[in-house]
Design a protein that fits this description.
247 residues
Length: 247
């Protein structure tokens, strides 16, 4: 609409609200014949961000989410990588596979993988050091032991140690690093500390891949038996030892 005011030919312009990124203005008049105007600019408001912490999960990264309360513009920063599944004890399915559930709170993921079969011709059996199932029907149990790296690179996964008696009466100890249900290739030397009662009255003999055996010395410190093993000298991804009763 054009109005005449004091010689000006005025056009009225409606107000425009400012946004987060765009300037606005109040309602104003402007002359169509000269530079006269009552225009007053309203500066852009800028974003008004609120933050929300999105926690990481086993499979998804965590991050801080910033969301504008006025226009819903958003961005994320402070990325925290996902933590991966942390599996409990692996159980055999009876078909050459094994399964385990994730132990992290709120995650109910279950994974199934092939068993990690190791052949032991000297004992006439095969077994999986991960789930503990042996071809003779026995199952060495998880032992409360400490496995500490003395030298070498840290392998993937967690150390797992099992001790048990086979169907033929032989007592066996297995040590390996397990990641996602599979044995990790390790090249480190480890110090093992376990309850002395597990090895009392026995000598330790490492089973080599070529069928030979190597004696392993241990010391008793209080209620614990302590010895070292070297994955770098083994052709197996797990270390397997016979516990031989002293005559």
């Amino acid at each position: 609409m054009e109005l005449t005011n004091g010689g000006h030919s005025l056009t009225h312009h409606a107000a425009q609200a400012a946004t987060c990124t765009e300037v606005g203005w109040e309602a104003y008049d402007a002359c169509s014949r000269c530079d006269y105007t009552t225009y007053v600019e309203l500066p852009a408001l800028g974003h008004d961000y609120q933050t929300e912490i999105i926690p990481r999960t086993c499979e998804d990264d965590g991050y801080t989410l910033h969301t504008c309360t006025r226009c819903a513009d958003r961005y994320a920063d402070t990325i925290i990588p996902h933590c991966g599944h942390w599996y409990g004890e692996w159980s055999a399915n009876g078909d050459g596979t094994q399964r385990a559930e994730c132990l992290r709170g709120g995650c109910h993921h279950e994974k199934t993988v092939d068993c990690e079969i190791v052949e032991l011709p000297a004992l006439n059996i095969s077994l999986c050091p991960v789930c503990g199932t042996a071809s003779d029907g026995s199952k060495p149990a998880l032992a409360n032991a400490s496995v500490k790296i003395v030298s070498g690179r840290i392998p993937h996964g967690e150390a797992l140690l099992r001790v048990g008696t086979l169907a033929n009466g032989e007592k066996l100890l297995t040590v390996g690093y397990v990641y996602g249900g599979q044995l990790s290739k390790a090249s480190c030397q480890v110090k093992i500390t376990l309850p002395a009662e597990l090895v009392n009255g026995c000598t330790l003999s490492l089973l080599n891949a070529d069928g030979t055996e190597t004696a392993v010395a241990y010391t008793v410190e209080g209620d614990s038996a302590v010895f070292t093993l070297d994955f770098a000298q083994s052709q197996h991804d797990a270390l397997l030892l016979r516990l031989i009763p002293v005559a």
